[in-house]
Amino acid sequence: MEQETFDIAALSEMNKGTLMEQLGIEYLEARTGYMKASMPVDERTFQPMRILHGGATLALAETLASIGSALMVDREKYDVKGQHVSANHIRSARSGKVIGEAVIMHRGRSSHIWNVDVKDEQGRLISTCRVTMFVVKKKESPS
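Above: the chain sequence. Below: its structure as tokens.
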């Protein structure tokens, strides 16, 4: 698979006015089959016990897989949509940032499967996630 690197500033611009902006997700690296981003562990991403909310972790994982898949298809012909996301939460995070690293495991014509590991700033595994994306042919618009 050819490794193409993508413009982080352009990807970040797409976050304006979205959940990703609300959660403070920042892209760090983007290339074919690999995405990396950070997310703060703070009042935006806490659950009531003041630890990282599992739903915020899943949002980070699905964001990375979604963007990663979108960068690997012809977006004029195909859409990508989340089909399934699951996670095993290994430990909690209370402050700082977490870093999500997404690696494509399967690149099929109609689906992509990603593994996303979320670690704290010390490199300790917080959660490991599996995300399946549909790759759907766009319907032709009637003329």
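The longest strand covers residues 125-137.
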